[in-house]
Specification:
globular; mainly alpha; two-stranded antiparallel sheet
Amino acid sequence: MRPAHPSFPPGAARSEDRVTMGVSLPILALELPGQQYSCHACGDCCRDFTVQLRDEDIERLDRQGWASELGGAPWVEFRGSRFLRQRPDGACIFLQDDGLCRIHARHGLQHKPVACRSFPLSVMPTADGPQQGLNFACRSVQRNLGAPLGTHLPDLRRIAEDAPETIGQARVVALLPGRPGSPLELRALAGVLDQWMGRDGLPIATRIDGLAWIAQALRHAKLASVKDDRFLELITTIIATLEGELEADPVVPATERQERMLRQAIFMRTEDPRLDRMKSDGFLRTAWRQWRRQRAFLKGSGTVPELRGFASGVRFQTAELIPNPLHDAAEGHDEPIDDLVSRWVRARLRGARTWGAGYYGFSAVEGLSALCVDVASAAYLARVHAAGRDASADRVMLADMAAAVARIDRTAGRAPWLATSGERLRLSYLALDDGLRRTCALHACGVEWT
Ligand code: SF4
């Protein structure tokens, strides 16, 4: 959420705080110990995001009378939806030089579009009630700066009261495609995975490897008759024995095909639609540009296609010489990377952004696979960022990993092209032949390459 002033007043919230809504719905606080956030008005989200508007947002903007000042409506229509207009550099038309929002400055926080008021926080409907979530595309979230997360619950309540459809009705979430999950099973799965990710004594590479191992194992498990308490028993046993399983079955290098699939997944996760450019270029030129970018990622040779504001002119081979930051961190070089990745993954698991309404209605196992691919994508992109920062870089720094996590998390659950059957198919292919584990460990030190 973006307050008028960077120093958001902290309240006396506890992690178990619940805010009662007008219709007696509580908002469940995100349980992520030690995580904080306040907006520090860096303006990153106003430069990076394409903001979709609701009808009520459009009506409010129209009432504010911006058209004459901006030389036209402050929104554009594209393929049946309406979005905040962007400047030629892609930033929001309302972003001021001081990093603040012009709507906010003139009319106050309540008068901004709902998406702008809530970012980087979110509310997702779950069977247990609306759940507070958190997006790691925000710099303050990554740096863990600000007030305890619970202090933002009153703001989320106000947003939900203004826009009740943002809370919606919780739908049944599948555990696996075709196998509905009960609230108990989904809660238990998120809980044990979160506990696993919170095991500080284990290197982050091992924790991510375990996550991928579980995603693959559950995908192939016969769960038709393993329900509720028996499912709970099963996943508790898996977690208890997981460390031994990983040791007994060490990850091996990814195949060329798996590497190609990962780069394809990265292309999908870094697509950056610029509405003004797409409108002026038209469908054919846009499709041609996308096809060329996609082809470059699939080939994985030559120069990495331009990633706006991220890195340019980096060659795939140069980036791939830099070790995988998850494994580099595992060797004790860089604990902050370990901490950032751990908080990010736990926020996705605990904040209802891994499956169900927070992730395209995916089943738990598909969503967990997508989360593993997100982590693998961020680890790869961090190397691209490092190579772009310094052509002779031999390792990823925290700033590289932070930039990569931001780039990946900004599309997670938001980009319609990640909700397709093609993406689901890619996730199931990647889960074959240990592919999730192997791509998460791509180019790691300590893995013997053939
Ligand atoms: S990215 Fe975060 S800190 Fe920066 S303006 Fe947006 S909400 Fe505020």
